[in-house]
């Protein structure tokens, strides 16, 4: 699959080559109707031929459908600047009325390439324009003829007066200053605008991904609600039948089995009732500010009930009792699921480091379990196939979605020593913590 950036460069290079063709056509018409010496006209025709070869070579390059790199595009723009300099140098120098064509490479670079490449193109065009002021003497030496003025006047025309020459020199200097300011503003403003557009595009993509993820979660929640509703009726029917069987059969061994089945069905019904009460509670519960200490201790208390034999070592920093975060039952369930996965993966003690860094809390959970498959490492933004016998592969996905709604993140990776998993959870704080590094 092609990289979108490369596809964009491919399209932009095609447009840039089209502009080059337009310049060739305009320059050819001007050279055709301009009266100048044969030597200069031959040089101009040769330059146009070089530009035509460059355009043809670029069209051939584009038809190969291979990847276009930024450096290649940069070379193309620098080549355009050099060829334009040849055209301007032999057709009026700095006084050429089409010298503003130098802005095209700057605009294309600012809207397409990186800041580094745009700076290079800007410096090259400024140097090329500045060189036109010294071009006339170089041309006279090259073609072995006396220097021509900016007006290309002949010997029949009178030389300009000193005052007129001074005014014209000031005019040319003003044109150069105007070009330099325009090129600098264009390169700066367009680069910043392009960055803003890219940032907005990234935000739109993030919102689109969040919407798709929420739709997946909503589908899962809807399916769970439907399943809970459909399970209620058969469980009630089974409970009634088991109650009747208990009264009909008085054998000890059969009665005990029926009693066990009845208790299991009651447990399932109780779980469904809790599920409904939890849903009602989540719908009404709002975010409550709590300290990091209180939040983590509440999770630790729940984990002691779920895994009485598990050992969890919490290492707080000095700001854990002063930092506040917004939490509710959703966030607590997400964290409990993360800790539960770590406890189930490792029988060794869990090491948890809690650091409050300025506006965020970073929770590092390290277990000594079997580790993660390579395809699961990173951010669990999609459901996956769980390796646990009773797992559905939804826990980490739902935890990530919950953390994302709280503007938090979760990242999974294998420990550097190859043993166990390192889970990093970050959450925003409502209070700013001084920078510990300072």
Domain module tally: 3
Global mean pLDDT? 75
Shape category = elongated
Spans of at least 5 consecutive residues whose pLDDT stays below 50 are: 1-7, 141-158
What's the arrangement of strands in the largest beta sheet?
2-4-5-7-6
The radius of gyration over CA amounts to 37 Å
Q: How many runs of DSSP E, i.e. beta strands?
A: 7
Helix content: 55-70%
Report how far the terminal alpha carbons are from each other: 46 Å
Largest sheet: 5 strands, mixed
How many helices in DSSP terms? 11
Structural class: alpha+beta
Instruction: Assess the beta-strand content as a share of residues.
Output: 5-15%
Summarize the model shown.
By secondary structure, this protein is of the alpha+beta class. It has helices spanning 4-32, 38-63, 70-89, 103-112, 115-131, 135-142, 162-248, 252-284, 292-306, 329-345, 395-405, and strands at 288-291, 312-316, 324-327, 350-357, 360-366, 409-414, 421-428. Mean pLDDT is 75; it is low at 1-7 and 141-158.
Q: How is this structure best described in words?
A:
The chain has 438 residues and is an alpha+beta fold. The chain folds into three domains: 4-151, no CATH class; 217-284; 288-428, Heat Shock Protein 90. The protein is built from eleven helices and seven strands. The chain has helices spanning 4-32, 38-63, 70-89, 103-112, 115-131, 135-142, 162-248, 252-284, 292-306, 329-345, 395-405, and strands at 288-291, 312-316, 324-327, 350-357, 360-366, 409-414, 421-428. Strands 2-4-5-7-6 form a five-stranded mixed beta sheet, with helices on one face. A two-stranded antiparallel sheet has the order 1-3. β6 (409-414) and β7 form a beta hairpin. α1 (4-32) packs parallel to α3 and α7 (162-248) packs antiparallel against α8 (252-284). It is elongated and about 125 Å long. Mean pLDDT is 75; it is low at 1-7 and 141-158.
């Amino acid at each position: 699959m092609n990289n979108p950036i490369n596809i964009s460069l491919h399209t932009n290079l095609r447009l840039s080559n089209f502009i080059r063709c337009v310049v060739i056509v305009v320059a050819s018409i001007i050279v055709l109707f301009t009266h100048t010496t044969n030597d200069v006209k031959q040089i101009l025709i040769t330059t146009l031929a070089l530009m035509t070869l460059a355009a043809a070579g670029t069209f051939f390059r584009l038809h190969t459908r291979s990847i276009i790199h930024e450096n290649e595009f940069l070379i193309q723009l620098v080549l355009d600047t050099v060829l334009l300099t040849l055209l301007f140098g032999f057709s009026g120098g700095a006084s050429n009325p089409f010298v503003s064509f130098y802005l095209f490479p700057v605009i294309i670079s600012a809207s397409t390439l990186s800041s580094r490449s745009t700076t290079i193109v800007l410096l090259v065009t400024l140097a090329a324009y500045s060189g036109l002021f010294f071009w006339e003497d170089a041309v006279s030496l090259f073609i072995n003829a006396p220097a021509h003025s900016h007006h290309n006047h002949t010997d029949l025309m009178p030389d300009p007066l000193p005052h007129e020459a001074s005014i014209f020199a000031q005019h040319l200097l003003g044109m150069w200053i105007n070009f330099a300011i325009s090129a600098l503003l264009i390169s700066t403003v367009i680069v910043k605008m392009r960055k803003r557009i890219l940032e907005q595009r990234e935000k739109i993509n993030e919102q689109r991904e969040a919407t798709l993820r929420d739709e997946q979660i909503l589908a899962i929640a809807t399916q769970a609600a439907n399943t809970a509703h459909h399970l209620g009726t058969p469980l009630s029917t089974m409970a009634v039948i088991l109650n009747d069987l208990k009264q009909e059969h008085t054998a000890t061994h059969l009665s005990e089995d029926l009693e066990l089945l009845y208790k299991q069905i009651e447990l399932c019904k109780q779980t469904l009732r809790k599920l409904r009460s939890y849903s009602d509670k989540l719908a009404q519960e709002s975010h409550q500010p709590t300290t990091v200490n209180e939040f983590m201790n509440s999770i630790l208390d729940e984990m002691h009930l779920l895994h009485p034999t598990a050992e969890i070592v919490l290492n707080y920093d000095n700001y854990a009792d002063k930092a506040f975060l917004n939490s509710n039952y959703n966030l607590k369930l997400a964290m409990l699921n993360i800790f539960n996965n770590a406890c189930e993966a490792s029988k060794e003690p869990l090491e948890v480091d809690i650091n409050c860094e300025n506006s965020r809390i970073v929770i590092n959970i390290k277990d000594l379990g079997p580790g993660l498959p390579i395809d699961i490492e990173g951010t669990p933004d999609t459901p996956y196939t769980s390796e646990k016998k009773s797992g559905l592969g939804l826990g980490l996905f739902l935890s990530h979605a919950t953390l994302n709604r709280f503007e938090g993140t979760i990242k999974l990776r294998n420990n550097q020593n190859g043993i166990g998993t390192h889970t990093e959870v970050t959450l925003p704080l409502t209070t700013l913590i001084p920078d510990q590094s300072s």
